[in-house]
Amino acid sequence: LDAVSVITTKRDGGELSDAQIDWVVDAFTRGIVADEQMSALAMAIVWRGMTRRETARWTAAMIGSGTRMDFTDLPRPTVDKHSTGGVGDKITLPLAPLVAACGAAVPQLSGRGLGHTGGTLDKLESIRGWQADVTVPRMREILADPAIGAVICAAGADLAPADKRLYALRDVTGTVESIPLIASSIMSKKIAEGTAALVLDVKVGSGAFLKTLDGARELATAMVELGRDAGVQTVALLTAMDTPLGRTAGNALEVAESVEVLAGGGPADVVELTLTLAREMVAQAGLRIDPADALADGRAMDHWRAMIQAQGGDPDAALPVARHSEIVRAESSGVLTRLDAMGVGVAAWRLGAGRARQGEQVQAGAGIEMHAKPGDSVVAGRPLLTLHTDTPEAFAGALSALTDAITIETGSEWKPGELILGR
Ligand code: URA
C-alpha cells in the first residue's frame, strides 16, 4: 500500500477498501503519509464523497489512532451532547450540570473556538481558576460523584489523534466542508470519549457550517448512523442558527448568561434549547425526571457550582469585563427582522472573543451584547448592540462585519421562525 494509490483511487471516483483506509489513517498518524498527501486525499474526498461503509471504517480508524475511553463501570448512565457549532451557543454550560442534576453522568470533551464560532473551553476559562485539563482518573471521580456528575474538559492527546492532525490540515486547505469528513471527525471524538448515549445538535443556517436544511439533515443522518453502528445510542436535532442564541456572544458574557439560565432566568431561546436537549439526554439515559424541575428548584445550579469548583474555578468570582465598549444604535424604528449569526459571530471574533491564529489567547471580556432580537420592536437611535473589547482598534473591523447583518422593517407582521427544526 502506498499513499499515491490511495489518493488516485479516490480521485478517480473509486471506493477505498478497508485495508486502504486502515493503512492511510495509521500511516498518517505515524508521520509516514505526509501532510500534503493527506491534504490531497481530503480534497479528493470533498469532491468524490465516501460511502456509508467507507465513512464508518474511516471513523473506526480515527478512533483506533488513539484510546477509546470506557465509563461503563460508572454507577450512573453516561450521556453527552455535541453541537456542530454556532454563535452565542453557550448551551453546554447550563446543560451539562442540569443533566447531571437529573442523575446522569456527563463526560463532555469540548473544544476551543473555530473561526466565527465560539468554544466552550474558551468560555469557561473566563472563570477565575478554572482548568480545562483533567486527567482520566479525575474525570472518573467527578463523574462518579453524585454531587457533581459532569465534567467539561479538553480532549487528551490520545483521543483520536488522527483527527487532531487531519482537522488542522483541513482548516488550512479548504477541506472542512465535506459531510463524511465532518461526520467522522465529530463522531470519532464522541465515540472515543466513552459516552453510552449522545444527543447531537446539528445547526442549520447562516451562522452554521451547513446553511441548508437538506445538508444538515444529511450530516445528522450520517452521524446518527456512525454512532449507532459503534454502539452509542444517538439522536440528532436540527436547530436554527440564522441568528445568535441568547443575547450574548463572547466568553465571559456567555458565562454570565448561562448562570442566569441556571438561576431560573435567561433568554427564552437559550432556556428552550437547554430544556429540549436535556429532555432528550435524560430520556437517552433512561431516567424519568423532568429537567424543568431540576432547573426550577436550584439543583442544576448546585451542580454547576460543584462542577466549576471541581476544576479549580471560583463560581463566585466576578467575571472579567472588557476595558472598552461601543454602542451600535438602531438606524430606524420598526421591527428587527434580521440579526445575522455570521455577522455577529465574525464581529465578536474580531473584537477578540476568538482567535486570528491557532494558539492565540482569547479575550475573556470581548464580545457582543444584543439588546434586541429578531421579532422585537426597536426605536431609531436606541442601543441595539454593545460591543466590548480590550483592544479598541478592533471596533472598526467588528462594525464592518455588522454592516449587512441588521435589518429593520416597518409595518411588518413578521414573526421569528422555529428554533427546533427537526429530529
Ligand atoms: N467540528 C469538528 O470537530 N470537526 C469537523 O470536521 C467540523 C466541526
From TrEMBL:
InterPro entries: Glycosyl_Trfase_fam3, Glycosyl_Trfase_fam3_N_dom, Glycosyl_Trfase_fam3_N_dom_sf, Nuc_phospho_transferase, PYNP-like_C_sf, PYNP_C, Pyrmidine_PPas_bac/euk, Pyrmidine_PPase_CS. Residues 335-409 form the Pyrimidine nucleoside phosphorylase C-terminal domain. This is Thymidine phosphorylase. GO terms for molecular function: 1,4-alpha-oligoglucan phosphorylase activity; thymidine phosphorylase activity. GO terms for cellular component: cytosol. Keywords: Glycosyltransferase, Transferase. The keyword Transferase applies. GO terms for biological process: pyrimidine nucleobase metabolic process; pyrimidine nucleoside metabolic process. Homodimer. Belongs to the thymidine/pyrimidine-nucleoside phosphorylase family. Pfam families: Glycos_trans_3N, Glycos_transf_3, PYNP_C. SUPFAM superfamilies: Nucleoside phosphorylase/phosphoribosyltransferase catalytic domain, Nucleoside phosphorylase/phosphoribosyltransferase N-terminal domain, Pyrimidine nucleoside phosphorylase C-terminal domain.
